[in-house]
Design goal:
The protein is an alpha+beta fold. 37% of the residues lie in helices and 25% in strands. Strands 1, 2, 3, 6, 7, 8, 15, 16 and 17 form a nine-stranded mixed beta sheet that branches. A four-stranded antiparallel beta sheet has the order 4-5-19-18, with helices on one face. The longest helix is centred in the last third of the chain and has 24 residues. The chain is elongated, with a radius of gyration of 25 Å.
């Protein structure tokens, strides 16, 4: 894949930043901080747990339409998709496109109280930063481009996607890449996630999540003593799994997240369940842990079934198990010579910023795993308390972060037009 020489990338960014229309886009962002914060307060007041993002998607679609975005639609997964056409290309062009996205969902259950409080440039509310900052950043970029009448060298696809958090398992972006007719045309994907203007996630942390269920006949703790106990079997399996040796490099982690089961203290349980999370920068380590999990559970169930000696207890039945994968995020990395990374360095140089490259699990995992240049970055400002009801966002210095996003997007559209 052709790359930007560093000198030409910087020259191109400097030329873009000097355009009158780009100055007009910057001026719109500078002149409308209250409008942007009002959008953010409206957004966080709409519940959006994984698989419950419909109302927030409708809000996003309406804002896209107001901005003048064309071909706004909601796909089968609930993703809201819009389109800003290239200035000099016909609407039916089938050439390369760039994607700018932000996830709509939050980690909070639908019943979580949502009462946004705005004081000056500070917003306090669950989800204020993750990912209201990203969604509103996306919407701001759209308005700035349209209001500034910025000419786009290639089409820009706008994606407000569902299912990034937790059990959502990146389902929105996963669906977009597997089902959208645009997928084969994407040459770069910029994800807006949270606040900040000093980092970018370029290495995708892989993860696999499993739910283990062990079932048995259950019974009375005294009358049916000797009946195999699913909690005992599950506890044995988890103890063995927890002792699995993990390498320091590539960094790999194992977490026993939840465990449930039983009816009462004097009942032999009929079922026990646990959820387990594996993470690594190396797909082979994830596979190794998956094998260790299956072996630990199978051995534990076989052992405790073998401990049932009384004929009456065996007549009542033995235990069975199932292991279901409930999450799978691929590991991948943006190459150091990627044109996307060269463009980001050039934008940083122009704005006097410095980006730390980080490891994380974001929507960028999917395009990176498919070989599409992608990264996840903040949309400016600052925030804290992520994934808690005390979450907050400060719009101080939001503007420089948005300029960073806008210039990077335009640079990649220029690059896309040359492919």
């Amino acid at each position: 894949m052709p790359i930007f020489p560093r000198s030409s990338a910087f020259s191109q960014v400097t030329a873009l930043a000097g355009q009158r229309a780009v100055h007009a886009a910057f001026a719109w962002m500078h002149g409308n901080p209250k409008t942007i914060m009002d959008w953010q307060a409206q957004l966080v007041a709409i519940p959006a747990p994984p698989f419950g993002e419909k109302a927030r998607g409708e809000w996003m679609a309406a804002r896209f339409a107001e901005a003048g975005v064309s071909r706004v639609e909601t796909d089968a997964a609930g993703n809201v998709i819009g389109f800003l056409p290239a200035t000099s290309l016909p609407a039916e062009s089938t050439g390369p496109v760039v994607v700018l996205s932000a996830h709509l969902d939050t980690v909070f259950p639908a019943e979580t109280p949502l009462k946004p409080v705005v004081e000056g440039d500070r917003l306090e509310a669950p989800g204020a930063c993750d990912n209201a900052a990203g969604v509103v950043g996306l919407l701001t970029i759209v308005h700035a481009l349209v209001k500034g009448r910025v000419e786009l060298a290639a089409p820009l696809v706008l994606l407000g996607n569902v299912g990034e958090e937790g059990e959502g398992d990146l389902r929105g972006v996963r669906n977009f890449y597997s089902q959208s007719k645009l997928a084969g045309r994407i040459v770069a994907h910029i994800v807006l996630d949270g606040a900040g203007a000093d980092s970018a996630v370029t290495q995708a942390l892989g993860s696999r999540r499993y739910q283990v269920s062990i079932t048995g006949p259950g019974g009375h703790s005294f009358t049916d003593a000797g009946t195999p106990n699913p909690i005992a079997a599950l506890a044995s399996a988890l103890a063995v799994l927890a002792g699995t040796e993990l390498p320091e490099e590539p960094r790999t982690t194992l977490n026993l997240g939840t465990i449930h089961g039983g009816t009462s203290v004097n009942s032999i349980p009929e079922k026990a369940q646990a959820s387990i999370d594996f993470r690594s920068t190396d797909a082979e380590q994830l596979l190794r842990l998956e094998v260790a999990l299956h072996r630990a559970v199978e051995d534990a169930v076989e052992h405790w079934n073998g401990e049932v000696k009384q004929p009456a207890a065996r007549t009542r039945g033995l235990m069975a198990f199932s292991i279901d994968k409930i999450g799978d995020r691929p590991a991948a990395q943006l190459p150091g010579e990627s044109p996307l990374l060269e463009a980001l360095r050039a934008v940083d140089r122009h704005l006097g910023l410095r980006t730390d490259l980080r490891l994380g699990s974001t929507d960028a995992n999917i395009p990176l795993s498919l070989g599409v240049p992608a990264l996840s970055m903040g949309a400016g400002g600052d925030g804290g308390g992520a994934h808690t009801v005390a979450e907050w966002y400060s719009a101080k210095d939001r503007e420089v972060g948005l300029r960073r996003v806008l210039l990077l997007t335009l640079a990649m559209l220029e690059w896309a037009a040359e492919q």
